[in-house]
Structure formats: C-alpha cells, structure tokens
Amino acid sequence: MDFASVIGYDALRNRAAWLDLSARGKIKLIGEDRARLLHAMTTNHIQQLTPGTGCYAFFLNDKGRILADANILCLADHFLLDVEPNIRESLYQHLDRFIIADDVTLEDVTDTTATIAIEGPASSEVLRAAGVPVPESDYGSAEWGTRTVARLNTTGSSGFFVFAPIAEQETLISTLEAAGATPADAEAFRVVRLEHGKPRYGEDISDRFLAQEANQPQALHFSKGCYLGQEIVERVRSRGQVHRLLMPLILDTRVVPEPGAKLQIGEASAAEITSAAYSPALEKVVALGYVRTEHARPHTVMTLGETHAEVAAPSF
Questions:
Q1: Quick check: 236 pLDDT over 70?
Q2: What is the rounded CA–CA span in Å between residue 299 and residue 316?
Q3: How far apart (Å, rounded) are the C-alpha atoms in residues 147 and 61?
C-alpha cells in the first residue's frame, strides 16, 4: 500500500471512509408485477418486503448455479437492484427474458446515478453529522431529498451506500468529508473486505458454484415457494449434499497467493483460494476459499507449500 492507501485503510478499520462505487450496476424495476417477478427469480423472499426494507439474494440458473448476486431495495414505487459492474448487463438481459405478459419495466440507471459508500465503525456518526437519515436495519433505506441512503456495505464492516443523481456527486462527497469521512481507495476496501471474510461476486462467487456452497445463508429463504433453481437448492438442503463451503482463511505469510492456489491437509487437497490480500493489521495474508465440507471449521490447519494456513472465524 502507498501512503494514501494506508491512511484510507486505517480510517476504514477504525473510523469511517468513503469510496466511489458509481460503476456498480443499478437496475430499477417498475410496474404492478415487479415483486412477483423478482420473487420468482431470486432465492430470497421478495413479496414480504415493504418500502424502506430490502434483502440480499442470488439469481440462479435452472442448474442451481449462481448467475448473480444483488442487494435488493424495496422503495415506494420501484425496486432497485445494486449489483457488481461485471454482471450489470447480463442480469438485465436475464430479467428481460422472463418478462412476457408481466407489468414490469426495467430501467438501467447506472450512468445517471452515483453510488458513494461510507463504511467503518463510525460511519453512522458521520452520516448523522452530515444531517443524513440513518436506516437502522440491514438492507433498510431512507430518502434524503433526491438521494437514497441504504444500510449496505462491501467490506463486512458497518456501512451505507448513498445513491444520488450523478450531478450531485461532487457535492455529496464534499458533504461527507466535511462530516469526517476519509477517502480510501479500492485496495484498502478490498483488504478490509477480506479481513472480514466478505465475498465478492466475480472473485469468490460465480456460476461455478451452487447457492449453498457460497455459504451466505442470508441470501436464502427455504419456505418462499418456487423460483428459478429452487429444485436444486431444496435437493441440496434435504440431502445435505454440500461438498465445499466458502470460508475465510488466514495464511502465515506476507506472500499473496494467486487465485486457484490449492491448500492441503497431508497429501490431500483441502481448499482452493479465490481471493487473497496482505493484511497490515494482522501482518498475515487473509483470503477466501472453498474448503471441503469436512474441513470447513474454524482453526482447521492446512498448508500451502511450506506456508501454514487455517480456517478463520467469519470476521476479525
């Protein structure tokens, strides 16, 4: 990390930092059937959401593989999907294919909407100092003039996203900095994400994996009724056929391994790393990886060559 990254990293861990996430995809769903469509397309219970609430969910294919993940916000007259930049277009097309006679209109508002993340243990205090309404519940949202504030995060720490018209981006950032938020770069956010064991679609989750393998129980609802991929999810649940789980890892080294590196127990393969970074706070490498189910317990010891590694608790 350079000096600016270190300053942002320290703020993100101990106070509050902001990051421009405007490249993240933002898809609006409008129309009377919007809740019904999303309910039939995702792994979570959309029809029970009310304005100001939200959830995290997966979109699956008919084989139960994860095509996308999304933060889903229920607002007064529409749903807003917040998604990774690399799945914005494919998810839009996926949804559009299933709109036949439904009263649903999709609108990609990514280019007209800024997204600013404010994360860290003092993020609530920063927002209050700026006069911003603070949603109390995870995935909750509140209106702030022309802006929407949602309790979301990318790092696993306390955090919020502010969605604003793109013309208000610079004013918004100035307001947050005046209230005490420090700028941080994507590298600092990524390190803290891995310190907290929070996965990211495209790095740690992809269409290689089944819903339960991603080990994100908050994305799944087991009594909501039918949805695309539900048959596979239920079969895995009822039979307990999960062979690997995404878990946080700590490696006793400063050398960051490449994605795909294999960890072993004895001569047998035990885990595969998906993403990793050096943690200045721990002075070790933190990572996420898919661990064989029989080894997916905190403090299970593995090796990567001569390097000692172990399964970590879910967050630090």
A1: yes
A2: 13
A3: 33
- Through-space distance between the first and last CA atoms of the chain, rounded to whole angstroms: 20
**217-228 pLDDT tens trace:** 999 999 999 999
Q: State the pLDDT at residue 2.
A: 74
Contacts of 313 (CB under 8 A, 6+ apart): 248, 298
Please tell me whether residue 296 adopts helix, strand or coil conformation: coil
CB 277 within 8 Å of CB 309? no
Distance CA 135, CA 48 (A): 18
**What's residue 316's pLDDT?**
42
Find the mean pLDDT for residues 77-93.
97
- State the amino acid at position 80 in one-letter form: L
**pTM (predicted TM-score):** 0.95
Asked if pLDDT for residue 9 goes beyond 90, the answer is: yes
Q: Write the DSSP string, 222-279.
A: TTS---TTHHHHHHHHHHT---EEEEEEEESSSSPPPTTPEEEETTEEEEEEEEEEEE
Q: Is 250 exposed, middle or buried (0-12, 13-18, 19+ CB in 10 A)?
A: buried
Question: What is the rounded distance in angstroms from the CA atom of residue 38 to the CA atom of residue 45?
Answer: 9
Which among 52, 59, 222 has a CA at the least distance from the CA of 138? Answer: 52
Q: Distance between CA atoms of 95 and 106, rounded to whole angstroms? A: 8
**What average pLDDT does this structure show over 140-161?**
97
Rounded Cα distance, 306 and 51, in Å: 53
The token duo for 82 is: 């917040």
User: Considering the chain, what percentage of its residues have pLDDT values greater than 90?
Assistant: 95
In this structure, the number of other CB atoms found within 10 A of the CB of residue 226 comes to: 10
79 forms beta bridges with 29, 74
